[in-house]
Design brief:
1068 residues, alpha/beta, seven-stranded antiparallel sheet, 37% helix
Length: 1068
Amino acid sequence: MRRQDIEKVLIIGSGPIIIGQACEFDYSGTQACKALRACGYKVVLVNSNPATIMTDPVMADATYIEPLNVERIEQIIAKERPDALLPNLGGQSGLNLSLELSKKGVLDKYGVKVIGVNLDAIERGEDRQIFKDTMTRLGIEMPKSEITYTVEHAEEIAASLGYPVVVRPAYTMGGTGGGLVYNVEELRTIVQRGLEASLTHQCLIEESVLGWEELEVEVVRDAKNQMIAICFIENIDPMGVHTGDSFCSAPMLTIEASVQDRLKDYAFRIVESIGVIGGTNVQFAHDPTSDRIVIIEINPRTSRSSALASKATGFPIAMISAQLASGMTLDEIPYWRDGTLETYTPSGDYIVIKFARWAFEKFRGVQDKLGTQMKAVGEVMSIGKTYKETFQKAIRALENGRHGLGFAKDFNRKSLAELLELLRDATSERQFIMYEAIRKGATNEQLFELTRIKHWFLQQMRELVELEEKILQYKGAMPSDELLVQAKRDGFSDKYLARILGIKEKNIRLRRTALGVTETWHPVPVSGVENAYYYYSSYNGKTDEVPVSKNAKKVMILGGGPNRIGQGIEFDYCCVHAAFAMREAGYETIMVNCNPETVSTDYDTSDKLYFEPVTLEDVRQIYEREKPDGVIVQFGGQTPLNIARELADAGVKILGTSIDSIDSAEDRDLFRHMMERLEIPMPESGMAADIDEAVKVANAIGYPLMIRPSFVLGGRGMEVIYDEQMLREYVDKAVGVTPDRPLLLDRFLQEALECEADALSDGKDVYIPAVMEHIELAGVHSGDSACVIPPISIPEKHLDTILAYTRKIAQELHVVGLMNMQYAIEKDKVYVLEANPRASRTVPLVSKVCNTQMARIATRLMLGTQISELGLGPKVIPHFGAKEAVFPFDKFPEVDPVLGPEMRSTGEVLGLASTFGLAYYKSQEAANAKLPTEEGTVLISLSEKNPAAAKAAKEFVKLGFKLVGTEGTIRWLAENGIAGEVIHKINEGRPNVLDAIVNRQVSLVINTPSGRRDARADDASIRKAALKYKVPYLTTVAAAVASAQGIRAARDSAGGVKSIQAYHADIR
């Protein structure tokens, strides 16, 4: 029964998207908000991430976009007075914060009950020593291990266990700070890092179970102690690769029923002892040789695995967990198969595969190597009838330009010996390398010895290679009908077959269709609700099992595929709002996406969800089956845009801005001609297909210049080039440059203020809710720059110019829906950098700061509504929203944490306040780089010494900070009348700048890098040390000026908290 003693529930979100904690918590938090409100409770939500659906004002009764720390949450509790806190839906961040609130007495002080979990029990799960004692009592084996609080003790433990050993810090997620170590040197480094990352400054040193099977069970328990196992997940990569990076299947495909029964029994004992109400993920290792099972860890909360388990089984774990936390029990919730949920068992005649997506290419100098610390930035999930089909479906869903396993990179050109050498370490390319190794004659035994991937999986891959080799005998022609039918059943995509055979994809499609080889559609029933399903396709099904409505008002929305740097949750936000707006307008909505972490793939976001790769082959077959009125491609980022032209050519009706318009904005040449015609200035530029052309263009434009490949998202491959040598290096490394896809070279605008405008257009009228000013100057990718709305330093005349240019361009491109414009102001002149007539990552941000639901309005415009009908007018925004990007540099310690034109952030936070200074301060606080408000020492090292830098230094002196810096910087400051102390550079003697950071003698580092890579080594060590020792560091003068304003504002008052609904009420 629903609890009557509580009325208002506080939910803590997980904060910005980082590696190890991604948008699966947006999905679980959104589900929980819906479930609790449906039960009649009021919901107060706090989260610092503006890009989520969860932080939309419609999801909770009061929504606070505030930094996630004890002080801010206490302010919110004091203001809102919730009766209860639900702590297990905000990932590790939410859980750690709830524990801190409890320990500091905040919850008792305000009489807030904790529901869903017992916090003492969480300690039993998260505190390594308590957990070990509990397991011993339950008779469940753990890897041999000991707790340590010091590096010295860790060395003793490792010596007694024998190397390799695993280091696991307590209270962290995504394996943060931990790792597998093979010698005492590595142990010292990793334990030191782990102790710093841990909330309780403790690490577990554990025997290595490297190469064992890694198995997971997802359990749900209620207040009556009724327990059900939702999903059994088999990690195909063995122990040694973090589960977030691991390729895995549900159900388990090679694990005997007797072992699964033991896992379930152990999982039930553990969950009962810890007393979690709702979902828990339990991870085990199994040694197939000795049959030993050991518990690795539990997550007494919704996790990445629970999002996967939910989507794999149709069991909405977060929604059910929220209902159970509110007092309901499993026997009160409906189950489509057998009455109510306490009788639930996993079922279904399908296989689910999860495959991770990485971003190693974004980080110069980083090693592509997988271990016990998670590195993936996203994932895809595929559903099919056989393992081969489902595996290949996952590969084609990855959005990395590969539509099958063969011929990736240059692996096919390597010898067997070279390929086997590449398999010694687990990497993101492992499956692709294995495929070519099999082709070159590797045996299953050789591959097993190197990878510990089981023979069954290797044999499945071998059969795919053998079939592909038979198909390749038909190169340049259509394979035999028998082979074509077999290839489709085994998951080979049309595009991949066409590519390896050297024929047209269209011909493959026509031939297989003539043979009657088309996808059949099958349902995944949803538990816990009546009559709900989502759907998947197979080439191995007998008949279609999915009804199709004859509804004339039907629209299909294409999602964004896997999260990756440059294309994150913001695009999912747009797709979800499109589905909501369509439904309100009376349309039947069809969503197509393959990302298990998102709200768009929740069963009730749209009327119909096809859990499918967003590729031409899959989308086309859904379109032909459903016959919708039209398709929305402009919300899912680059993924749907990559296939939009082919869809349009196939007769698919694209809603909103036409593909021709999108292409003419993407094509730099066409766009430049359009700007010339409209008399709108752009930086001088040119295109080059080879080094000679590039040198010629560079000499004409002049250095420095910005270089990039055409058609990319997230600034992939962009760099600022300072001289011909750098240019030659870049062109040498550039791949896939052709006359069709040339390199683009633009004059780099120096010391230019960058800004952007988001617009809504119906094809004629244009509405621009806001101009956003970047804090960092041009040269830092817009996704990585801090920004503020409304702008703080752009003169009125330039704002008028920006609005006029935006209107002109939107009208010229006949934009229907959304458009994002990027500008730079150099020497009092506004230049257009680019136009994106589609959704951009700024949409949720502008929507929340300005109270303009951009994605919803854009959807209505696509359906034919005119701007004049919507009553949109100019708004006076009395507050400031400062966005700050969040980076994964802590996961890649060898990378220089410096900003540039290529996007490297994984997520973002928002600071809201009545002044810019305070909003910026809160954004830094939310990004875990809290600025020092007490007087202290600032380490300053500048490569660009200009008036703005002198102004920033003066501000810090006025604030009472002491300045220390390297000789050149201090001398230059003295010339500008600013006092400072000299400190040694790294190679000039001790104590030096690094010692000052390590000894925590500085409270802030301002270190602006030189654009030239060779000059960065010394600077890089300063930045890496600041990151490691958690000293806030700034790499641009603009950020230093903003930080000084922030510190000043925070000293006057650290600011209160205010809900987004209250901010919106103040907009006039």
